[in-house]
Amino acid sequence: MSDETPVKDMSFEQAMAELEQVVARLERGDVALDESIALYERGAKLKARCEQKLNEAEEKVAKITLDADGNPTGTAPLDAG
């Protein structure tokens, strides 16, 4: 696990990979209570980061505009749909 990497600087893939490691360690149940709490807190931050990155990607996809033939022509404000 890479506790030294700030969650806010992680890509979606980095956060998801570490979140999977956190979940696996918690599921094994072989960590001390204090470490379990720290892992849970880190996992919550990683989950929030993944959700943030997914929302950002969804907004970008939603902004793509198409011409009459279905070809991308650029972007439009998200609320212009």
From TrEMBL:
It catalyses: Exonucleolytic cleavage in either 5'- to 3'- or 3'- to 5'-direction to yield nucleoside 5'-phosphates. Keywords: Coiled coil, Cytoplasm, Exonuclease, Hydrolase, Nuclease. InterPro entries: Exonuc_VII_S (IPR003761), Exonuc_VII_ssu_sf (IPR037004). Residues 40-67 form a coiled coil. The keyword Hydrolase applies. One of its GO terms (molecular function) is exodeoxyribonuclease VII activity. Its main location: cytoplasm. Pfam families: Exonuc_VII_S (PF02609). It comes from the Bacteria. Bidirectionally degrades single-stranded DNA into large acid-insoluble oligonucleotides, which are then degraded further into small acid-soluble oligonucleotides. HAMAP family: Exonuc_7_S. PANTHER family: EXODEOXYRIBONUCLEASE 7 SMALL SUBUNIT (PTHR34137). Heterooligomer composed of large and small subunits. This is Exodeoxyribonuclease 7 small subunit. It comes from Thetidibacter halocola. The gene is xseB.
